[in-house]
C-alpha cells in the first residue's frame, strides 16, 4: 500500500511529465543534429565520387588521344 498525499502524487506526475518532455526535446535535437551531419557527409561523398569519375574520364581521354596519335598514322583501328 502506497501512503502519500495527493499533492505529492501530483508533484511527482508533473515532474515525470517535465522529464519526459525534456527527454523528447533532447532526442529531437540529437536526431536533427545527426541528420544534418549525415546529409553533409553524403553530399561530401557524392562530390568526391563525381570528382574521381571526372578525373578518370580526363585520364581516359588523354590515353585515348595519345594512342590515337600513335596508332592512327599506322592505320590501326581503335574500334574494338
Mind explaining what this structure looks like?
The protein is an all-alpha fold and 80 residues long. The chain has one helix at 6-71. The radius of gyration is 33 Å and the shape is rod-shaped. The protein starts with 5 loop residues before the first helix and ends in a 9-residue tail after the last helix.
Task: Give a quick rundown of the structure.
With 80 residues, this protein is mainly alpha-helical. The chain contains one helix and no strands.
Write the layout of secondary structure elements.
Blueprint: H1 6-71
Please state the structural category: mainly alpha
Q: Span between N and C termini?
A: 89 Å
Unreliable residue runs: none
SSE run: H
Largest sheet: none
Report the β-strand fraction as a percent range: under 5%
The shape, in one word, is rod-shaped
State the helix count.
1
Key terms:
1 helix; 82% helix; mainly alpha; 80 residues
